[in-house]
Amino acid sequence: MKLESHDRLGHPTHASEKLPGGEKLHGSEKLLYRPDIDGMRALAVIGVLVFHAFPGALRGGFTGVDIFFVISGFLITRIVAGEIAAGHFSIAAFYGRRIQRIFPALVLVMVACIAFGWLALFPDELKMLGKHVFGGTAFLSNIFLWQEVGYFDTAAETKPLLHLWSLGIEEQFYVLWPLALLWSARRGKALACAAVLAVLSFAVNVGGLHAFPSATFYSPASRAWELLAGALLACAALGQHPAATAGLAGRLLHRYRHPASVLGLLLVALAYGLASKERAFPGWWALLPVAGAVLLIGAGPQACVNRVLGSRPLVAIGIVSYPLYLWHWPLLSFAQIVESGTPSAGLRAAALALALLLAWATWRLVERPLRTWRTPRARVALLSAAMLALAAGGALLYLKDGLPRRAAIATSERMQKALVLVEDVANAAACKQRYGFDTLYKYCLQTWPDRAPTVALVGDSHAYHVNAGLQAWYGSRGENMVMFGTRIPYWGLDPSIGDEYQAVTQRMLELALETPSIHTVLLSTAAKLSDGNTVHIAALRETLRRYTQAGKQVIWLHDVPALDFDPRSCIPRAGIPSSKTRRDCSIARANFERGTADHERLMRAILADFPMVQQFRPAEYLCDRQRCHVAAGGTLMYRDNNHLSYEGDLRVGAGFAAEQEARLHRTTTK
Fold this sequence. Notes:
Layout: E1 2-6, E2 12-16, H1 29-32, H2 35-53, H3 64-86, H4 91-120, H5 123-137, H6 141-148, H7 165-185, H8 190-208, H9 213-218, H10 220-238, H11 245-255, H12 257-274, H13 287-299, H14 304-309, H15 312-319, H16 321-339, H17 345-371, H18 376-399, H19 413-417, H20 425-435, E3 444-446, E4 455-459, H21 461-464, H22 467-476, E5 481-485, H23 500-514, E6 520-524, H24 534-549, E7 553-557, E8 586-588, H25 589-595, H26 597-608, E9 614-616, E10 627-629, E11 631-632, E12 635-636, H27 646-669
Parallel strand pairs: 4-5, 4-6, 6-7, 7-9
Antiparallel strand pairs: 1-2, 3-5, 8-10, 11-12
Helix pairs in contact: 2-3, 2-15, 2-16, 3-7, 3-10, 3-13, 4-5, 4-16, 4-17, 4-18, 5-6, 5-18, 6-7, 7-8, 7-10, 8-10, 10-13, 12-13, 16-17, 22-27
C-alpha cells in the first residue's frame, strides 16, 4: 500500500509505509519521506567510499560530503521550519532528536576504534586516537584537525577518526541555525536570512581559500553555505505565503523537473570527475556538487533521475549511509596502519564490504531498537552518558600518553619509544620568553635560556631532529646553543601566502647574525636545490655570504637519508599477529645518493665558493657502504620516514662531536 501526497515543493510524492528493511513509517514521516533523497545519500556515500579506497578511480569522490551537507540542510530546515510554522518548535526537542539520530552509531564506532587501538596501536598512535575520540564526542574534530596542520602533522591515512570533521561542521552549524531560523521565521524573513548567511559564508569560502586553505576546508564559517543551500530550498518551498511562493516554485520545478534532475546528476558527475585533492577546495569547485544536489532535491521524486535514485537498491544503501560513512574510514585507516603502508586492493575492497555489513548490523541491531526503547528522555540520557564516558576515555588515553605499558605492546616497548617526538616544553617556553616570541610559529630551544647564546642552530624540523645531540656536545664544552625554528633558512625569501613559518624565518636568520655573542651558526633544512630554482640558490649564497662576512663560523649540515617506508613497520604489533613487519629495516645507500645527486652537485658548486664553511654528513653515522639502517642497538634511529628519533639524534650528535674533537685536535697539534 502506498500513500500519495504532495511534498512542499508541490510535486506528488509516494511515501511507502515501510522502508526497504521493513521499518514502518509513522505520522508525518509518511508525508515527509522521499526515497529519492535516500538514493542521493547512496550516491554521496558511494563517492566517498570509492575515493577513500581507490582514489585513482574517482578523484572527486570526496565531494560526496558536500552532497550530504545540502541534504542535511534541506531536511533539517524543512522539519524545523514546519514546526515553527505550526507553533510547536522546541530547542530541547530538536537537540534530543539530534542525539537520538547521531549518537548510537557514533558511540559504537568510537568504542570499536578504542578496542582495536588497545590491541594494535603503539602509544603515540593510541594517544592521537584518544585526542580524536575526545574531539569526536565534542563535535570538534574539524577544529582539532585544522590545528594539527603543520610541522609534525601525521599522515591523514593513519587517523582513524579523520572523517568526523564533517560531523563537527554539521553540529556546529546546528548550534546556531535553528535559533537564527526561529528568529527570522517569526518575522517572515527566513528565506532572506538563509540567503544572506549563505552569501556571506560563500564569500568567506572563496576569499580565504588560497590565503588560509586548511582553515577554509575545516571551518564551519566557510562551509555553512553548503548546508544553507539546502536550507534555502526548504525555506523557498515553505515560504511565508505557501500558496504563492511554494505554488510558483512547485509549478516551475514540476514543469522542468526532468531536465533539472538530469542537470543535477551531470553536475554531481562533473564534481566526481573534475575535483581532486590537487585542486584548491572547496572554493568555486564546491558549486558543482552543491548545485547538483540542490537541483536533484528540487526536481522532486517523480523526475526521471530521481525515480532511479528512489529504486530499492539505492534506497537500501541510503538508509545505512550514515553508519556506512562512520565505519568505512576506520577500517581503511587501521588497514593502512597495520600493513605499514597502502593495503592491497583486495584488502581495501574487503574493508568496504565489511563496512557495509557493519553498517547494516548497526542500523538493524542498534539504531532501530533504540528508537523504540523506553522514552525519548531515557534514550537521550543513556546516549549522553555513553558519549560523556567516551569523552573521558579519550582524554585519559591522551593524558596517559597512549598507555605505553599495555600488555598487548609491551614486548617492543623500547622501539616504540623511538616513535615519540621528544620536546622539552619548559625549555621552549623559557626560550620563547627570552626572545619575545609570542606565536606558535616562532620557536626556539636554548641550553641555558638565562644566558647569552654562543652557538645558533637555524633550520626547519630537520634542524630540530639533530638539536639534542648537538646541544649535548656544545653544552659539554660550556657553549650555549640556541635553535631557531624556520621553514627554509635562506636569506631574503618571500614567504609563501599563508606560510607562517616562512614568514618568521627572516627574523630568525637576523637574530643569529645580529647577536654578538653567537660565533658559530649551523644551518640545516630538508629543502633540496634544483637547477630550475635559481631563487633558492641565490638566497643560499646570500645567507652564507652574510654569515661568513660577519665573522661567524658556519657549519652546513647535510640532510639525512629519507626512507621509502614508515619505520614503525620495523616493529611487530603483538596484538595483531597478521600485521606485516619489515625484516630488512634499511634502504640501499645507492638509492639515497642517486635521489640527492642533483642537490649535491649544486651544493658542491656553492660551497666551493665558501671554503671556510664546514660540512657535516649525518648519513655517515646511519649508513655503511651498502645500506642506510633504520635501526641500531635494538632501537629505531628514525621516528618517521625523514625525521630522526631521539636515539638517532644522539647517535648523529655523537658523530658530530667526534668530528669536531678530531678537528680541534688537528688544530692544536699544528
